[in-house]
Amino acid sequence: MKPPEKNPGGPGGSAIRQAAVLALIFIAVTIIAGKMRPGGVSLVLEPVKPQFTHDEFIRYKLRVRPGWLQKQLRATVFSAQVVQNGVPIRTIGGQKGIRLSYDRGVGEWEGDWPCPWNAPEGFYEVKLSTEALPPAAGSLKITARPFEIIGRKPAPFPNGFAVLTVEDLTDLRGIHWPGPDGKKGDWRVLVDWAKFIHADALWILSADSGGYSIKPPDDHPWNDRAVSTIRALGAECHRRGIKFGVWTMCYLIGGSPDRSPNYAYAWEYNHGRLTDDRNRPGRRAVSILDAKRPHDIAQLVSSWAALPEVDYVGLDYIRNALGGYEAADQFVEEMRISVPPQWNQWSKSERMLWVARKKVARKDAGFIDAWQWWRAHKVSAIIRTIKTAVGTRKPLWVFTLSWDRGWQHGQDPIMFRDAGADLDAIMLYECDKEQFDGLIKDWEGYLRAGQVNLLAGDCVDWVLHQRDPAGPQEFKRRILMGYHHLNRNGPVKGIFIHDLFRALRGRTGPWGTRGWMGAAAQVIAEIKGSSS
């Protein structure tokens, strides 16, 4: 016999149904009123990729759930602190953390953090501040994923590596220069001098963008050596046991303004006025924002890298050569610079002037730090373009100015290494003794031995050594100081002698070519002896 069925329509069933309906209504009303959040609030803070190099912005995104809260908070700016080993880390310009603003296009908050100069490699945590959330948000579940700063490993070079440079575009097929024996010879004397000072490599300037006479500038924006000349010189170097490299002038252009390539040029600031470098006589700086120039350089350098006679390819003036104030708007936006309230009402020229005057005044250390890092970041992107074209076929070197570790000119050896530079030739010239000592102090403590393949180099020029009575010996002293002190705990990778053309045709004083090249041979022998 079946037990009697309960009457679903009786008084008990009706009460149950009524209670359930009331509960559902209460929950719905409570949710709408914002007093109960089923499942709480979920915030996920994560990097756009797991690893970053030193030349990059560390970029983060924040997702907020549920959707009603996301919509409510769209005008809110979140902040997150970067921490390593429990210690909060500040970055460029004293920036404390990551500020994240809502992007309607992706439906998430986004923010970035410029990687600090030579930041220690390893993992970093981020801690999200919840102060921006309303008190009634409900239970919180926060997921904050770490990021890692990594460093690129450059191509290997032997310790005590020594280079002789030739910074001249004279047609080698017509030269008659004296060799170490005093007798004039053809282009092979370049290799004779490299052998004389026991250099491991000969590097020669092989292109710039000045002196057009045949081809239209936009068709072929180079005054460059014939490939046959490069191959012949490289083959002679190889025959005699010497490596061979060629380089180009990147962001400085010579010749007449009306024959200049069609690039975007830099804007300078002099005597209270802005001037466009496009119309500047003599030498003009291409803007680092120009889209075409990196690809023109990459195409040329890649063609050299394909030659079996070429061992290394190089870049000079790979920097914001002059001015750069045409980049004012982009710099302010990307580095989140605080600007006057009327900024958006100003003309472009007025905004450029504001940045130029603030930079020249040098009263705001955070602003200067941001300006220097941002330019190095932009130039690093250019190096990446060139290195991508060259690939791993040949090592890539760069010439870097030495003032303030290169920062004053938008250069940094760590950032350039990560962007693709395998060797960094540090130019220790155009300064007096006091300035030179300050320059060395700038570098001490910044780099550890082994971080970057550095070469310390000085210029054969008595006038640039203030006509020092010691002449070539002062030249030797400065190279050795750089070799031993650009790193904080050991010598750099090697040295370079700049340059043979100056030694043969330049301001050598009473010592002549042999006096300076003899000093070059001495310093090379000394560093090779200490590195063996």
Any overview of this molecule?
It is a single chain. The chain is an alpha/beta fold. The protein is 32% helix and 23% strand. The protein contains 13 helices and 25 strands. It has helices at 11-33, 67-72, 189-196, 227-239, 293-305, 328-334, 348-361, 365-390, 413-419, 433-443, 472-485, 500-505, 512-531; strands at residues 41-47, 51-52, 57-65, 78-84, 87-88, 97-103, 108-114, 122-128, 140-144, 147-149, 161-166, 177-178, 184-185, 201-208, 223-224, 243-249, 252-253, 267-270, 273-276, 284-285, 312-316, 396-401, 423-427, 454-459, 494-498. Strands 1, 2, 3, 4, 5, 6, 7, 8, 9 and 10 form a ten-stranded mixed sheet that branches. An eight-stranded parallel beta barrel has the order 11-14-16-21-22-23-24-25, surrounded by six helices. A hairpin with a 2-residue loop joins strand 18 (267-270) and strand 19. It is elongated, with a radius of gyration of 31 Å. The protein starts with 10 loop residues before the first helix and ends with a helix.
Largest sheet: 10 strands, mixed
* Average pLDDT over all residues: 90
| Helix fraction bin | 25-40%
Spans of at least 5 consecutive residues with low confidence = 1-38
